[in-house]
Here is the input.
Amino acid sequence: MKLLEGKSVIVTGAGGGIGRDFALAMAAAGAKVVVNDIGASVKGEGRDAGPAQKVVEEIKAKGGTAVASTDSVAEWESANRIVQCALDSFSSIHAVVNNAGILRARFFFNMSVEEWRAVIDVHLNGSFYVARAAAPYFKSQESGAYIHMTSTSGLVGNLGQANYSAAKLGIAALSKSIALDMARYKVRSNCIAPFAWSRMIGSIPTETDDQKARVEKLKTMETARIAPLAVYLASAAAQDVSGQIFAVRANEIFLMSQSRPLRSVHRADGWTPETIAEQAMPALRAHFYPLDRSQDVFSWDPI
Ligand code: NAI
Here is the structure.
């Protein structure tokens, strides 16, 4: 029996990139799939029903079951329609993959309110809306799996991505909160931070030979390499896995750390700003984090 036989799964942003491979892999594992995608540009502009429908046809051509949904994750009512689509089409819902995403990269000091809101709306608010819309069904059936896409841009850091990084770290906290609040209903929630060559990162300039060589290496991070972990997390095989953050890069899978105290200092008579400067900071400084970006931490070529 296949891992997701008889299950119904929603994949948002499944018209292309990583989400498309999620939808194909979920269907290949036996799931009935809602292929949700508004067919927007990387920046989230425009609409096209074509990409979602095309993936549905690919799934059907291979003998799978899928239905297209072109509602946006970024508004509460339309996010509810995505969940309703699964119920109308398959009479059930077992897993939600919050994958839809856009990019509006800009240095913080130049970022507009519109750029901030657009990215928070699709990633953080969208993940909440779709997850929340599915929650009553997961709760009453006492089972369900959430998979949310986070990013090392938020978990570690990146330049020019204040909106995206904040949204993606927010999603990690959302996932942990869902895992805590819904554990009593046997509902699980996990995050994946993917590294994959998609249109989202395909805009890296390739003018010099160095840049061209780097991009060739990045292309080995195929979007399809992320899907096996998502299928596993959606399945009953992962029934004891919740509240975790994984990263996937080509053939590497990482379990990511979560914030815990690193070191503490204590003074029986309390602290003044002066004693903090003289004693607390020198003691803590050795454990400060450098201003790392994702690429400083993942500094080796994809394997
Ligand atoms: P992509 O741009 O190829 O796919 C994103 C999809 O989301 C597009 O098909 C787009 O039409 C859809 N979408 C955008 N706004 C939507 C909305 N409001 N409602 C429904 N669908 C919407 O990007 P990619 O790379 O496949 O990204 C997938 C997820 O993985 C995103 O959440 C992204 O932030 C995350 N991610 C990707 C990384 C990478 O290396 N490619 C790195 C870290 C995170």
